[in-house]
Design a protein that fits this description.
single chain; alpha+beta; 1 helix; 14% helix; 34% strand
């Protein structure tokens, strides 16, 4: 089930450079993900992972934001527990990982869910 999180409008836009907003950070991640996906062979797929300070990984299902600087990650931790992680955008470390498809895996259109509207170049 997807949770729809609507970011509030920042109250002090004069002091927030638009290029430093969390929404732009998530958009840049989306562009990196799309570029990475284009490098995959037919028998490969990928995951977007968040690495925590202790080295543990979160397999990202949904990536969202709350401007000006909060990133919200939902996914599975290494113990296979559903989690929601709230991070300052400057503390986010992400990894895109390629791996061979499992034979019984079904293709998916959108690997990562982005909850906010993201402009896509076509």
């Amino acid at each position: 089930m997807e949770v729809n999180i609507t970011p509030p409008v920042p109250t002090n836009l004069n002091n927030t450079a638009s290029e430093n907003l969390a929404s732009n950070f998530v958009e840049r991640i989306n562009h990196q993900e799309q570029a990475f996906e284009k490098t995959l062979a037919d028998d490969e797929e990928y995951s977007l992972l968040v690495m925590l300070h202790d080295g543990s990984l979160i397999d990202v299902d949904t990536l969202s934001y709350q401007n000006p600087d909060m990133i919200i990650v939902e996914g599975l931790n290494e113990g296979n527990h559903n989690i929601r992680l709230l991070l300052h955008m400057y503390n986010v470390q992400m990894i895109l990982v390629k791996f061979k498809k499992e034979l019984d895996a079904l293709p998916t259109e959108n690997k990562i869910g982005y909850l906010q509207h993201i402009k896509k170049n076509k």
